[in-house]
Amino acid sequence: MCTIKATIHPKNYMPTVFSPFVKELLDAAIEIATLYTHSEVKVSHFLLALLKHHRNNYVTGYLKTKLSLVLFERDLFRELETLPTTALPANLEAVMEKVLKDAYNEAVYFKSDIILPEYFFLAILKNNTIQTLDYQEARAFVTEQQTYLIHQHQEINWAKQAAIFQLIKGLDRLYENQKINLQPYLHYAMRNEIRNFVSLLDVPTQKNKITIEIIENIEVEQAIEQTMRFLVHRKYPIKEAFLYRYATQEWTQIKITAKEIIIKTENTSCSELLALDLKKCFVS
Known about the structure:
The protein is an alpha+beta fold. Helix content is 43%, strand content 21%.
């Protein structure tokens, strides 16, 4: 499981969603590494995934101004042949965390609501020397196309993202006014898909006490499974978890029995830890 955490403050800009193309990109990079039995996902895996699975993008637009795409792909495949292989199954998803964070930071720079595949390319280029490619030049190229980039991603569920923003801003306002003692974070987890959560952490210990996921009605079962994965990892000592179906404005509280990791679901939005009805966060 890969995660990204970032403090939520209304005065700071915060991307809220990955482009659907990003999941395709990550899956393709893992598939290439698995095919070659490589133990890690390297730059060459990501670049080939970008070229093969996101063909109509501004990455290829920039590359065409600098080199031959045919020769570039040939060199990437040759590099794959030289990478060490392993007979043991590799935990390839575990190496995704850094590239996810770097792409997130690029989205912050561009003040983009959406984390786009182009930001992954810039993150890779910033930390690696790749032939005649230049990070600042590529960033300027993407900047010129920013308006067109956003228009290409209208498939994002903006109603869901608006609900996330309203919730985290409401929680942050309460935290800043010392009405609650847990600080809200935006939290991403990647497994079969990229999911986003609002987590509330105890600042001194950095322990996750409450997790809230905003979902569609059809995602209830998957959301409960994700909560179970958090608990199994023991990195997240969650005491309360909530699901909010934004389309119907229904809440489900997931009550956790610590010793046995037993989950009971109740139809309520009231947090015992916060002494707060979470519905109030959606009041403007």
